[in-house]
Design a protein that fits this description.
With about 575 residues, the protein is mainly alpha-helical. Helix content is about 65%, strand content about 5%. The protein is built from 27 helices and 8 strands. The N terminus is likely disordered.
């Protein structure tokens, strides 16, 4: 009876469509509607904020310098070569900025398009394996997964990397599970090559191959001939070589030692050495299990007690559609856990694989009473915390007010609104539909984050207003030195800026800055953190302009005359002029 009633609803709706629809047309209509709606949800907030630290201003600055100088082969940061990443992501951001004519509109386009592309790949493969209904549910699950939604709105490399690793995995899975067409085999290897050029771990789809071989031996999946592996590997090498070989030749046979250092850093330090002997982001082996997955995989992580039983049944049935992506997830987690250096964002490429492993279980999970009540309890805890903090902050609780003043954000009304949203959702849908409540609340949260949140936080996270104030104080023709600089200040600078080497010791930077500013004390200024200036007895602090707090630091602006008693040294550090500020 329930099936008949649902069919009646579908037929009733179809009467209002402008053209007679077959079921195939009906499915395509909803497929297009879903993709359009998803793109709108992902794109909301575009143009409402500037690049925020830590990584976004750096990549935006790299892209701007490429457009300004025409030097696209080697990324630069404030006139100095940036040795830590290949240029692929910066190229994409430069294209976005050039097409839109605006940093604000263009810097987030690569992540937006990568997120949408990843959503399409996940949904399309799911549709081919399980039908359109499961595909739509899988797409919604991906959109509401916390880490995916966050990174889709963050202009870091990892969302673009995830698109290429997902494309690689899509090609492998489509070849092995659906049509065994060679084009998908080759697409996978090319995608991995571009992924490696985007960020060194673009080879992650290879984690599918051990499970693939296992199921092939059991006669469950298509498998290529071994010569296809050789062709695929050669395609990967060729793709990577399109940038690596010219870069290495230019660096090796040129006369610029900084290019040689860039070559060695990219090919060796940022790859094998960074994995085996990391020098930062050091965390224990269980970091991802204990500190990342519990929040990054929400709300799917809530379903794991039920999913484990489902996966066990699928394994007994030799279901490669589940166990190939699931085994790849386990291998990727093992791979990153073995490295001493770990960041939460490293496991972002596992989320599309997780959706593929979960997809056929979603309809059954939505009927699980225990899971729905768990989801309702979780959303009450999250939204209740926001609501309580908003109310207490609005009433002036001292600890929250101090936190607000420190970060320069007053989020109480926003927190109260989004926190209180769970109340009508629970009253309307009831606790036994907790997963639906969670998804709706999460989508509403990200829409509010991308609009209300952006507007609230942009002044605190971006020094745009502060750098305009700097120009008003110094005048348009004055030059500015930024010792121990952060990229966001160069990006938002309104006048010529110099810096003294990103990794130069601060003491040597200051000596060079003093020598530079004394050459023309009436037209040169130094922007510095207040705690740094207070530690220098030679500075005349009576001449300071207090700019207040920005990015959790206190900033002073000082004219050249304030450093007349400071000993300078022209040879203590290099001097770089930022091309974007000329």
């Amino acid at each position: 009876m329930k099936h008949i009633e649902n069919q009646r609803k579908v037929n009733s709706f179809m009467r209002f469509l402008p053209l007679p629809m077959t079921m195939a047309r009906h499915n395509r209509f909803f497929w297009c509607l879903f993709l359009l709606g998803s793109f709108v949800i992902l794109a909301i907030g575009l143009g409402l904020r500037d690049p925020w630290p830590a990584d976004e201003p750096r990549f935006a600055l790299n892209a701007l310098e490429m457009l300004k100088t025409g030097q696209f082969w080697f990324p630069h940061r404030a006139g100095e070569i940036y040795p830590d990443k290949p240029p692929i992501f910066m190229w994409a951001m430069a294209i976005g900025i050039a097409l839109t004519g605006s940093v604000r509109w263009g810097f987030m386009l690569p992540s937006l398009l990568a997120a949408f592309g990843t959503l399409f790949l996940v949904s399309d493969l799911t549709r081919r394996l399980y039908g359109i209904r499961i595909a739509l549910l899988a797409g919604i699950a991906l959109l509401s997964t916390f880490q995916f939604a966050l990174q889709a709105r963050t202009a870091q490399i990892d969302m673009s990397l995830t698109f290429f690793t997902t494309l690689g995995a899509y090609g492998f899975l489509r070849y092995s599970l659906i049509d065994a067409k060679n084009i998908w085999w080759y697409v996978s290897w090319i995608a991995m090559g571009i992924g490696i050029l985007t960020k060194g771990v673009g080879f992650l789809p290879l984690a599918l191959i051990p499970g693939w071989i296992l199921f092939y031996k059991q006669g469950v999946v298509h498998h290529p001939a071994w010569k296809q592996y050789i062709k695929g590997f050669l395609l990967l090498i060729l793709t990577v070589s399109l940038w690596v070989v010219p870069m290495a030749l230019i660096a090796t046979f040129g006369d610029d030692s900084s290019l040689t250092a860039y070559r060695d850093n990219i090919l060796f330090k940022q790859t094998g050495e960074r994995y085996a002997n990391s020098w930062h982001h050091l965390n224990p082996w269980y970091y991802y299990l204990a500190s990342v997955i519990p929040w990054a995989w929400l709300p799917l992580i809530l379903a794991f007690p039920w999913l484990i039983k489902h996966w066990q049944r699928r394994l007994r049935r030799r279901d490669a559609k589940i166990w190939m992506p699931l085994s790849a997830i386990l291998l990727i987690l093992l791979f990153f856990s073995l490295s001493p250096g770990k960041r939460g964002v490293y496991i972002l490429p596992t989320i599309p694989l997780l959706i593929w492993a979960v997809a056929p279980s979603i309809p059954g999970l939505l009927q699980q009473k225990g899971l729905n009540y768990l989801a309702t309890f979780t959303i009450i805890a999250i939204s209740g915390t926001l609501l309580t903090a908003g109310v207490l902050g609005g009433y002036g609780v001292s600890s929250l007010n101090e936190l607000s003043q420190h970060y320069g954000v007053v989020p109480w009304n926003w927190w109260m609104t989004i926190g209180a949203l769970s109340i009508p959702l629970i009253l309307w849908l009831k606790p036994h539909r907790g997963m639906l409540i969670f998804v709706i609340w999460m989508l509403a949260f990200w829409v509010s984050w991308s609009t209300w949140g952006y507007v609230l936080m942009n002044t605190a996270r971006s020094p745009h207003d502060m750098m305009q104030n700097v120009q008003r104080i110094t005048g348009k023709n004055a030059s500015l030195a930024l010792p121990d600089f952060d990229e966001e200040f160069v990006l938002q600078a309104q006048q010529p800026v110099v810096q003294f080497g990103f990794k130069t010791p601060l003491e040597k930077q200051l000596q060079r800055a003093y020598a530079w500013v004394k050459q023309s004390p009436d037209e040169r200024w130094i922007l510095t953190r207040a705690d740094q200036a207070k530690g220098e007895a030679c500075i005349d602090q009576s001449e300071k302009h207090d700019l207040g707090i920005q990015n959790s630091d206190h900033w002073w602006l000082l004219p050249g005359s304030a450093f007349s008693q400071c000993p300078g040294n022209k040879k203590s550090a290099p001097l770089y002029e930022a091309p974007t500020t000329k």
